[in-house]
Amino acid sequence: MTYAIVAYAVTAVLWIAYLLWLARRVARARHE
Amino acid sequence: MNEPSATPGWWNAAGRGLWILALALVAGSWWAAAHAPVEVQMGPVQKIVYVHVPSAIVTLIAFGLTFAASIAYLTTRQWRWDAIAAASCELGMVFATVVLITGPLWARSAWNTWWTWEPRLTSFLILWILYAGYHVVRSSLRSVSRRTVSSVLGIVLFVNLPIVWKSVEWWRGSLHPRNVTMTGEMRETLLLSMAAWIVFFAAALMSRLRLEWIREAAAERA
Is the CB of residue B138 less than 8 Å away from at least one CB of chain A? Predict the structure, then answer.
């Protein structure tokens, strides 16, 4: 069970981190 | 605010709609995974399949789209195709990373090891490394050749996809399951998860393309 929870948690964290990085790049590009 | 650099209103509206649908589907698929029957042999750890398999399928879709868009760019020389190729490849990398993290978590229970150099795992790791190389090469180039070189890479690297796909058949001694055969509620959960991550990919692709769109508009103004 622990491995399954870790797998789902890591997936969520990875995607949230990527989308935040993407939002930051969009914001930076809009101000350039 | 530099509005000329913004994407069209219809694009933003479609993107928002797609994001709402994608997040609802992913949330629904995770809820379904939590409530799906527990597999008898493996127990709850089998539920990793509901995120691992769709992520692997979307990885292949994303790199396949990079291949198609790269051909389209070399044929038409329109920047939009190069933008689609690069955006799709970047998202494919994130999906591939999810596959490479969730796979060993499943393997630890199924095979009693985090990693083994069997054909599917090895070919997928090579795929990840090669597509990471695509981004390294692309980010190191600044001239007009950037798009051409990226497109050639996007086409050449596609050779790896059939190898990954067929690796479980072409090499003997493959531990990785050939097919995921499920029935009933488990199958429905897997299908829902597939649909959820495909829509998620589409929504993320629209957002990522927005970045390319803004950059292109800025380059045109400069």
Answer: no
